[in-house]
Specification:
- The structure is a single chain.
- By secondary structure, this protein is α+β, with helices and mostly antiparallel strands.
- It has a single domain (3-74), classed as 2-Layer Sandwich (GMP Synthetase, Chain A, domain 3).
- The chain is 35% helix and 22% strand.
- The protein contains 3 helices and 3 strands, in the order ααββαβ.
- The protein has helices spanning 3-12, 15-20, 50-65; strands at residues 23-30, 35-42, 71-74.
- The protein has a 3-stranded mixed sheet.
- It is globular, with a radius of gyration of 13 Å.
- It starts with a helix and ends in an 18-residue tail after the last strand.
- Belongs to the NifU family.
- GO terms for molecular function: iron ion binding; iron-sulfur cluster binding; structural molecule activity.
- Pfam families: NifU.
């Protein structure tokens, strides 16, 4: 199984939780340094809690399942103070 496939398998374990909030995630690249670069989709891309989702959920799931990964980054994190940030409907 390729590194991308291993990361996708790890993401599949948490995707139902992301989808329940109207979000998802896509793997954009895995760098030569084994850094996973993700794009947050749907409500995950505009939610001010996305940094917590990334660190507490996505990053842990990937690094636990694929120990050779050194870091997980999102290319489109919303800042918690962004005036355009929107909470998913069930978090309002």
């Amino acid at each position: 199984m390729s590194l991308v496939e291993e990361v996708e398998t790890a993401l599949d374990t948490i995707r139902p939780y992301l989808e329940a909030d109207g979000g998802n995630v896509s793997v954009e690249e895995i760098t030569p340094e084994k850094v996973v670069r993700l794009k947050l989709l749907g409500s995950c891309g505009s939610c001010p809690m996305s940094i917590m989702t990334l660190k507490a959920g996505i990053e842990q799931a990937i690094m636990k399942a694929v120990p050779e990964i050194t870091a997980v980054e999102a290319i489109n994190l919303t800042d918690i103070d962004d005036p355009n940030a929107v909470l998913p409907a069930n978090m309002r």
